[in-house]
Amino acid sequence: MNAFVQNQTRHYCSFLAECAVDALMDEVNLTPKPALVDRRGNGAHHDLTLELMERSAQSLKPMFEAMAQVAFEQGTVSQRLREAIGQIGRDGEAVMLAETQGVNTHRGAIWALGLLVTATALNSQKAKTIKAAEICQLAAEIACLEDRFIPEQTESHGQFVQKKYGAGGAKLQAQQGFPVIMHFGLPQLRASRAQYHPEVAARVDSLLAMMATLKDTCVLYRSGELGLKRMQKGAKYVLELGGYATDTGKRALQFLEIDLMRLNASPGGVADLLAATLFLDRVEQL
């Protein structure tokens, strides 16, 4: 690889990392989001703030850039690539936890966006145009490879929920090619834009479309099956009223948030997927 190509590659990897961080920043600043951290407050999270989430997102840029770089270096889906980005992700998580003093702000986003950044870097070497479906398929192929070097850990919230409720969680979403994004998040984002809804409303509608369908392990862990059912039913109802762009939709969203706050049900898994949705939407327009 000559010096010019190396320089172009570095710039592109940096750009993909910026897209990922921008997606995280756009997600956390999107307001309103029911029971989630946004510009109004902390939602159902006593340990999170907007400022903390923003600092956490910014701390992840070198990690995303390193993932893109290793994808360019290796050039294809392989066990070696899977384990390389796994280690980069663990190192990035350590940086995040140091920045947040131990608060888990973006562990789920590291997984989802890390896979998508890697897949985009791979895809861009062969395809003339970037398509979300192709990126998600590549991400699925990577996610289906097991990382042999994952250290033994105590049971995560997601693993606990998987055992108790049979919900697949973030790992299965990735291994299936992010179906909630491809079938609900992205289509709703673009459908709302096509109806000339404001961008904020389109993004809130995208969030709601995924809330209405995802078995969010964060919600299941915090509020059980009752919380999940109330979230899904309430989000679906807002969309049936025309979404956040309508007055009736706005009122229904307010009632949904009151309900979720009472149940301590915060859709953190959906928030991660919204950031991933915004990333895919951005890179598909390149």
UniProtKB/TrEMBL annotation:
GO terms (molecular function) for this protein are: ATP binding; triphosphoribosyl-dephospho-CoA synthase activity
Q: Which UniProt keywords apply?
A: ATP-binding, Nucleotide-binding, Transferase
The regions listed as transmembrane in this protein's record are: none
Q: Which GO terms describe its biological process?
A: prosthetic group biosynthetic process
Q: Which domain of life is it from?
A: Bacteria
User: Sorted alphabetically, which Gene3D superfamilies does this protein's record hold?
Assistant: Triphosphoribosyl-dephospho-CoA protein
* Enzyme category, top tier: transferase
Q: Name one Pfam family in it.
A: CitG
Catalysed reactions listed for this entry:
3'-dephospho-CoA + ATP = 2'-(5''-triphospho-alpha-D-ribosyl)-3'-dephospho-CoA + adenine
Could you say which EC number(s) this protein's record lists?
A: 2.4.2.52
InterPro entries in the record: CitG, TriPribosyl-deP-CoA_syn
Q: What does this protein do?
A: Involved in the formation of 2-(5''-phosphoribosyl)-3'-dephosphocoenzyme-A, the prosthetic group of the acyl-carrier protein of the malonate decarboxylase.
Q: Which PANTHER family match?
A: 2-(5''-TRIPHOSPHORIBOSYL)-3'-DEPHOSPHOCOENZYME-A SYNTHASE, TRIPHOSPHORIBOSYL-DEPHOSPHO-COA SYNTHASE
Spell out the family assignment given in the record's similarity comment: Belongs to the CitG/MdcB family.
Q: What is this protein called?
A: Probable 2-(5''-triphosphoribosyl)-3'-dephosphocoenzyme-A synthase
Query: What is the organism field in this record?
Result: Acinetobacter albensis
Gene field: mdcB
